[in-house]
Amino acid sequence: MDKKLYDLIDSYADAFAAQLTRWIQVPSVKDETGATVAPGAPFGAEVRRMYDMALNDCEAEGFVTRGFDGYALDATLQGESDEAIAVLGHLDVVPAGDGWAVDPFAAVREGDRIYGRGTSDDKGPSLCALYAMKAIKEAGIPLKKSIRLILGCDEESGWEDMAYYAEHVGLPEVGFSPDASFPLINTEKAMLHMNFTAPVAKDGLQVKQMFTGERTNVIPGESKALLEGGEELAAQVAAYAGKTGLPYTAEVTAEGVWVTAEGIPGHSAYPTGRRNAIGMMLKLFKELGVKGAFATLADVVGMESHGESLGCACEDAVSGPLTCNMGILHLEDGVIFCTLDMRVPITADLNKLAANAKAALPGFTVVHESQKEPHHVPAESELVSNLLAAYHEETGLPAEPQSTGGGTYAKCLKQGVAFGASFPDDEDLAHQAGEYSDLSKMITATKIYANALVRLAGK
Known about the structure:
By secondary structure, the protein is of the alpha+beta class. It has 11 helices and 27 strands. Helix 4 crosses helix 11.
């Protein structure tokens, strides 16, 4: 690949770090309350502020830009043809959550590392793509196709941004999303999301308060509940913690016993090595004599991550096993509200799995159900082969396509894959406290993207 291109990218390192710092310092979490939602700010004031910053930054680089009412924006590097290779990233982030050692929206830098919510998911990778386009432009590399960076504002929630964008201008057919990992993901599992409610039992252990989780796609790392009882109950909690080796604590107050379960947070699609704090709490409730809906959840969901007791466990050779996560469990006015997020192998029957889950939860009412079909691009396609070649050329590492339970904007494209920006040996901190990116690796990712885009769009 052109040495001038790489020299340019190396020269951008300081500017890249400064720009990522500005982007991370905008807490672009969707306003779920609606308090700051307004025309032009469909996801709230902070997401709109991030949108405006990104749009201005793309304009400042001399790209042709368009904004779409706070839903999404695009920046185009024009080629000989209007046919565009798409790069789809997002500007919204999940809530910071607990457990940070630094301010999650301060973009704290320690050596090569920049900490902050969005550094890896997905502001950092989106900037890598932008700087790859900048280098191609400044190097004067001729293009037969255009390159279009599309940045959405609702990826972590309902994808209303891409629906709005597609409705107004349509999406290119071919491209990638820098919102996962290298070498490349060409298979994304289907998704099944279900929300349930049920009244609590009047007998057995009484749970007075519980409010755990903010997002269905996050494995909760901590759960707190207020239980009716006193010193004897607190002693039972301590005994159960000793028996299981799991981290529970209990504090006796005038209100009752406040119990805390410490899990290991993560992204719902990747449960290996994680521990769901809701599941921990449910198992404790069952040990302490809870009945009714809480007992049912303890038995059929509990701390399982593959849907075994729900009758949903399945797998295939292409996409691996189903994963299942309870990301939210709230108790209000004697009614439980909970969510299930399943990432489903591409050969499975979504309707059958939904029916099995409902049958396994008698007494619960389904208040919401949504499905997303799986996505697969053949490994032998021109898109996959070019991207893998770019990755291998820049890293010298093996380059084989992979499957994921995560969902990316790649599904929005007829031929779309997830491509970076994390590397195989990177720590997985998606949706977790302590999220960070290494500047040197982001510069390498920028070179990979530049290489790939020249292969796909260059003359």
